């Protein structure tokens, strides 16, 4: 939009304001203004983009002033918004408890060109793009310019789903800022998902532009559109990719998250816990762009890869692009160095937004927010063994000493009979009680599996711990014999992991042990004192 066009649109806004305000406002004053605020009982305010606020010397706003403005506007919709037909200006109302308008926010709409010059190459790829950023950072402005670019320069069939007429302005005729793109208006925000689907089914678009995907239903509608082969350009709540991943409502936009139990070999290969978070499906959007500020963008060119890296805790940095660095980006392939410039940008980002480029995704935080941890109260059951079982199996559970906080109870069967107080307390709190027969690892594992409804733990895991328990019992018996005077004792063959446990047990009793034999016959030999020295010498 040129200055003449903006001036004409500005005059349209000033025309709806009271005379006493219009007489004190000039075009030169409005070049960087974002909104004019009219509140009953207060002086009018002009708010600038740099945070400066000018209070006009017109006296306090009255009900008559508010009525004079609203009488010149189309009817306010259910979201308390109205506009001036043919412009991008938006007027929002504040009402009292009786529904009467007591305040107006007149947001100045303007077309800013050149905001997508640095990402124009992505816009021409035909891939779906998701913009993230805080309010007021310029998301809608970029959508408006992309709509015009794709419709007029790439000659694509573009449909803009315009909730509250923020993209293409008020009125039946869309603003020239979106070029030849078509616009479908949304009467109320809750209908946005329906209009998104309707646009695909009725108007054969190649590209759909949507502002602010904010609900699970809208996220599902977006996936449906993408799966039909339609390019999708949209914005979403959240100022970073990591925050979007943590958002259970919108995480589906970038592939969703699921908890996966790995096999022993895979867990070792990854050097991770057996239960990990992984991306559930392909992302709806191929590219994610974080809007750091109006001139700085962080681009993830492969959303699937970026999400995988973040979930695994691997370091990742997006490509930083600056609105005013077109020449640098265009000449990147000609070996023109911009590393120093990028470094300065990244430093500025880190100073202004501590979390924007830090990716230390916390599985615990995600689990606590989305899948609350089960709290277990123990009665006459070994706490240490239960804690080890939870840790080894990586279960989504923790122990509590307060039955008020418990989700379930695990009790020893021999100590919780008929009239035990624990049973009446559990019944009072409507807690399910699970019983163990012995304080053994195998028994406790089985009960934990039943209590937490864990179906995907491999039986080999339980078998391993059963074998380990038997092997440790054998080692304990051998240790007692050594302490009673035996010279040395040979244990049964075991695998490396179990032999390690046996070695640790022997060391705790100040005795010595070594692994002997080859292959499947490799086992522990326990000796002590003088006999150990003799054995070592032989």
Short overview:
This protein is of the alpha/beta class. 36% of the residues lie in helices and 22% in strands. It is elongated.
Cα Rg: 34 Å
Note the quaternary state here: single chain
| Number of helical elements | 19
- What is the percent of helical residues? 25-40%
Descriptive overview:
- The protein is of the alpha/beta class and 538 residues long.
- It has 4 domains: 105 residues, Beta-Lactamase; 219 residues, 3-Layer(aba) Sandwich (Rossmann fold), CATH 3.40.50; 85 residues, Rossmann fold; 74 residues, R3H-like domain (Ribosomal Protein S8, Chain: A, domain 1).
- The protein is built from 19 helices and 23 strands.
- The chain is elongated, with a radius of gyration of 34 Å.
- The N and C termini lie far apart (94 Å).
